[in-house]
Write a structure and sequence with these properties.
mainly beta, Immunoglobulin-like, 4-stranded antiparallel sheet, about 0% helix
Length: about 180
């Protein structure tokens, strides 16, 4: 069993988009996934270094959504954050519908597909796994509809990044993006 497991948690738990791979190319197995708090729209991204050698043949995880310990529990006690903080105001923008990144993992370019139900000032930030802001752009007033935002990842180191979308100053989505070479 991996050191630090099982994870002690409180609350309700759903773990989305789990990944097992060598994220930073150091030969060690990494576990990654995301979760959210439905009542507040807060998103959480988790990354663990398993401390064991990565074996691609064994790193198969065909389940796309599951409860980590099958206990219905969410919210790890004392789990460190990576510095992604937003100006959460206890409300959400009803003009936001959905967003996702593809291809994911990507090599030199990713696309962000976004759907808005109404207008809003749209901005995009790229944050690395350490919580450092890598890139930020404001698109100004975006109208309702579907959008494709091409994003070059040339010059990014291989690893995990977070694409943070904000609408009218509220963070509406934290997307995980894996860059590999």
């Amino acid at each position: 069993m991996m050191e630090g497991w099982p994870i002690e948690v409180d609350g309700t738990s759903f773990f989305i988009n789990p990944m097992v791979m060598d994220i930073n190319g150091d030969g060690a197995l990494n576990l990654n996934g995301g979760g959210y708090v439905d009542a507040s729209s807060e998103s959480w991204i988790y990354l663990w270094d398993a401390g064991v050698a990565y074996n691609e043949e064994l790193a198969v995880l065909p389940v796309l959504q599951y409860n980590v310990r099958h206990t219905g529990v969410y919210g790890e006690k004392g789990n460190p954050t990576v510095g992604i903080e937003g100006d959460y105001k206890g409300d959400y923008n009803t003009n936001y519908i959905s967003a996702f990144c593809y291809p994911n993992p990507c090599k030199s370019q990713a696309n962000i597909s976004l759907e808005l139900n109404g207008p809003g000032n749209l901005s995009l930030s790229i944050i690395d796994i350490k919580g450092s802001l890598i890139y930020n752009i404001s698109y100004g007033m975006a109208q309702s509809g579907k959008f494709q935002i091409p994003m070059s990842t040339t010059g990014f180191d291989a690893g995990v990044y977070f694409v943070q979308l904000s609408l009218d100053g509220l963070i509406v989505s934290n997307l995980k993006l894996v860059v590999e070479y």
